[in-house]
Amino acid sequence: MFYKLQDQFDQVVRFVAIERHVEGNVRQLTVKAHSGRAESFELQIDLEKLTGNYGCKLFEYVGLPCCHLLKVFLKYDILKIPEAFIMIRWTIGANKFSSLYDESQLEGDNLRHALRHSHLSLRTSILFERASKMKENFDFAVLKLDELESYLQNYDDALT
Fold this sequence. Notes:
Keywords: Metal-binding, Nucleus, Zinc, Zinc-finger. The chain is α+β, with helices and mostly antiparallel strands. The protein has 5 helices and 4 strands.
């Protein structure tokens, strides 16, 4: 992800940001290429709240601030990417204790494999975090994992 963001920073020099409308702290801009491809995007940013939206939709689809938005940050001397433009999923520890779904979706017999996998991954991640803090907890967790692995192997063998 770092390299994708770095690529967006590298592209900033290709663009110019033109202020089109000002209303209080809100600026509406057009960001367009100096030369080459005729590309142009409309952006809006609130300089007080440091929130906004923009036309290329890279943030919405990938979760990455685009070069157009970075050009606007540069124009207004915004030296740190505002939190509104940082997806939580790209932050350190984003998945540590989060749930990406409503647990009521776990009820019923027709659960998708991906949802079962996601739920188990989240639960084990939390347990592993706790178990790794002390040697006794770690040893106990490894013992129980061995037991669980044996149980699941026996269950699979019984089905075949």
